[in-house]
Amino acid sequence: MKIQALIVGGGQAGLAMSYVLKREGVDHLVLERGEIANSWITQRWNSFSLVTQNWQNQLPGFPYCGIKPEGFLRNSEVIAYLRDYQKTYQLPVRVNSEVLWLSKFGHAYQVTTQQETFFSEMVVIATGNLNRPRIPISSKEIAPEIYQIHSSSYKSPNEIPEGAVLVVGGGQSGYQIAYELLKNGRKVFMSFGRTTWIPRNYRGKDISVWLTLMGVIDTPINRIQTKFMLNSASSPIISTEHDCLRNLVKMGLTPLGRLTDASMENLSFADSLEKSFQESDFHLFQTLKLVDQYITRNGILDSPIEQVSTMLDRRLNLPRIKKINLLESNISSIIWATGFQNDFQFVKLPGFDSSIALDCNKVSSIFPGIYFLGMHGVCTIKSGSLYGVGSDAESIYKRMINEMQSYSGIQ
Ligand SMILES: Cc1cc2nc3c(=O)[nH]c(=O)nc-3n(C[C@H](O)[C@H](O)[C@H](O)COP(=O)(O)OP(=O)(O)OC[C@H]3O[C@@H](n4cnc5c(N)ncnc54)[C@H](O)[C@@H]3O)c2cc1C
């Protein structure tokens, strides 16, 4: 079947692109391997809620209009939001259609699913880069009686076998899961690699309001002056709890350094905990200093002064545990909150590798007609969020017009 444009993936990115193409009269189809909002349905825990505020749910043509702009959608509400979006605009989505193959075909591209083959001059790849679990290879060395899952398969504390739990990874997912387990009376160990947290509120506003006002989230990822706010592992934890990492320890969590080795029931950890927490404190100070500077520069008089140092309780002595025996520690489960990786195995274009996908300018020059949308950090910090994906979809459409005019033109 010939079609003007194809979109691979029916998450927020694919739907946003579909909305823009439909509005502009471009004949297209969204191919989704599961259901609409598949990643939200299959890969988030029951108590999950967004850390971005409702006013940031800005899919094109479908901004949040509810009565709680400063609230946070639960997972089921995100799913409903995406389903409503598709329904409202009758976006053409073909579910249960996994793309297995994408290759060049003359001036066009051939896209193959189990059911059908399509030919199209434009293909938008909106398959996300936070939906293929990344689990360290050392997990395979761990004794088989230990229950292991990735954070994307975690649903609730009830589904985790009795006994203590080790959460590996100190990002947003690891934090939320460890917090929930502790609240449910579970004994929790947590291995931290690089980690960062910022407070939910600072100087009278939600932190996301400051970062938006300051233009941080609109900055191209490669030019971000505030690079220290990010780390390679994950986005910062945003929490209403002050000093949320040390607060977990006060709740009973046993913190550990980076996991370095695993052999049956014996695990080794680097002596890196103190350093991780110090780096996190440094990131916090730097980020909030930028907010302070912004407030001063813009003469914002009504924002109360907050002492950042009072947010941290550095008197807490962190343990220096280098080895753990899972059985002796009664640890029956490990939750790998170790992030995600790309999955572009279906892309069979000569010279393609996944680093190209994260460079929006390079993609178009090497593969005219191929676009990547929605990947975390692909253009700006907000590219992978419900707030930012719409503007990226609009700019992809503009690039489509320019590129298509140069050889065939959108009819
Ligand atoms: C733990 C966590 C917390 C987050 N919190 C927030 C937050 O608070 N606010 C926020 O704005 N964002 C948040 N995000 C980021 C982001 O919003 C999500 O990752 C979102 O799912 C990205 O949307 P997407 O459409 O780009 O990708 P996805 O939602 O992953 O959609 C991609 C779709 O492509 C489909 N697909 C994949 N491969 C194929 C194929 N070969 N053929 C056909 N279909 C395919 C998948 O089934 C999926 O439905 C969070 C992400 C995670 C993981």
Catalogue the unreliable spans. none
Report the CATH topology name of the largest domain: FAD/NAD(P)-binding domain
Alpha-beta classification: alpha/beta
CATH superfamily of the largest domain: FAD/NAD(P)-binding domain
Average pLDDT metric:
92
Strand content: 15-25%
Label the CATH architecture of the largest domain. Answer: 3-Layer(bba) Sandwich
Percentage of residues in helical conformation: 25-40%
Radius of gyration: 23 Å
Query: Which ligands occur here?
Result: flavin-adenine dinucleotide
| Widest sheet: strand ordering | 5-2-1-9-24
The tally of helices reads 10
Description of the molecule:
This protein has 411 residues and is an alpha/beta fold. It folds into two domains: 5-131 and 342-409, FAD/NAD(P)-binding domain (3-Layer(bba) Sandwich), CATH 3.50.50; 133-336, FAD/NAD(P)-binding domain (3-Layer(bba) Sandwich). The protein is 28% helix and 21% strand. The protein has ten helices and 24 strands. The protein has helices at residues 12-23, 38-43, 75-89, 172-183, 207-213, 244-250, 273-297, 354-357, 360-366, 389-407, and strands at 5-8, 28-31, 58-59, 62-63, 93-94, 99-105, 108-113, 117-120, 122-125, 132-133, 147-150, 164-168, 188-191, 197-199, 201-202, 205-206, 237-239, 254-256, 259-263, 266-269, 323-325, 331-336, 340-341, 370-372. Strands 5-2-1-9-24 form a five-stranded parallel β-sheet. A five-stranded parallel β-sheet has the order 11-22-12-13-18, with helices on one face. Strands 6-7-8 form a three-stranded antiparallel β-sheet, with no helix packed on it. Helix 1 (12-23) crosses helix 10 (389-407). The longest helix has 25 residues, at 273-297. The chain is globular. It starts with a strand and ends with a helix. The model has no long low-confidence stretch (mean pLDDT 92). Bound molecules: flavin-adenine dinucleotide. The site of flavin-adenine dinucleotide has 31 residues, from helix 1, helix 2 and helix 4.
